[in-house]
Prior knowledge:
Helix content is 31%, strand content 21%. It contains 7 helices and 10 strands. Helix 3 (77-96) crosses helix 4 (115-124).
Amino acid sequence: MKQGTLYCVGMGPGDPELVTFKAWHALCRCPVLALPEDQSGRQTAAAILKEAAARQEGLHLEEKDILSLTFPMTRDANQLRKAHSDASDKVAAVLDGGCDIALITLGCPTVYASCMYIQKEMRRRGYDTVVIPGITSFSAAAARLGQPLCEKDEPLLIVPAGRDDLPDLLAVRGSKVLMKVPRHMGALKEQLQDAGLLQHASLVERCGLPGERVCTDLRQADDTGYFSVILVRQEENL
């Protein structure tokens, strides 16, 4: 029996209208949909999928087999390794049965997405995989703010906000995208202030999702949630 193919499908930042045609076709074609969830059972990407299916014809969720995959929100390497291994085993069992799987993810699979750990493992095991990109959260956030991410020859640096070397990265020339923003932003705002960047920073939380919040001046922002992006626009005279 021919093995199935794993499709890692980017669902975009939240607005169901930002799901691409290529992603939609894969979702309609694959008989099995793999839905990521955290340890509490929350399925953010699945909510986008359900809203998109309600608005657009062609995707009948009731006809799909659903495979839930748990990706815990933790930095514990052992716990993550086990979660990825367990998820890979579940995916492999379906692929061995000849069924294609669409594993959905928020945003784009190529940017800090757990699904790529599964994709790499499936490739290592000899399965066929396809990665379908999605619109990133920071592209959507820049559009929501009505500003460019970068222009002309300006560099753009994408940084997880919790890195220990964040002050050094903030000193790098160019505009910044800060992802994985902590709930308590006091220290982060101090680091941006020390770098002379706080007045250039904006925040978009849950872009395209229910509860969206836009703050054009980070100095006025209080604590925020996980699904937040900070854009630091550092224009240059080029």
